[in-house]
Amino acid sequence: MPSSSKGQRVESTGPLDAAALGRDVRSRRREFQLAQQDLAELAGTSTRFIGSLEKGKPTVRLDKLLAVLDALGLELRAQVRQ
Predict the structure, then answer these.
(1) pLDDT, tens digit (0-9, with 9 covering 90-100), for 59-71
(2) What is the pLDDT of residues 2-59, one digit of tens each?
(3) By residue range, what is the domain housing residue 75?
(4) CA of residue 10 relative to chain centroid, distance
């Protein structure tokens, strides 16, 4: 289950944007063999939100995004560009 991998980093292949984040979330969800509805329930969000996030919607609520990432054992970090 996702909680056993808490804090795992997903490395995107390029600059992080909404589409890349959505692909990473979808990939991690599928890795755990979760349906969008299952992930929505774990994160306390709606299936619609999960779908929008995975499709790369550029405007999502940060609190919901963080809940989804937490449910998948992921974290979001800001760091200085090199």
Answers:
(1) 999 999 999 999 9
(2) 544 444 545 555 567 999 999 999 999 999 999 999 999 999 999 999 999 999 999 9
(3) 17-82
(4) 10
Residue from 8, 31, 11, 24 nearest 56 by CA: 24
Give the span between the Cα atoms of 10 and 77, in whole angstroms.
11
pTM: 0.80
**Contact by Cβ (8 Å): 56, 18:** yes
Angle at 25 between CA 9 and CA 13, to 5 degrees: 60
The one-letter code for the residue type at 24 is: D
Rg for the chain (alpha carbons), in Å? 12
Q: Give, to the nearest 10 degrees, the angle between helix 62-71 and helix 47-54.
A: 90
Report the number of distinct structural domains present in the chain: 1
The size of the chain, in residues, is 82
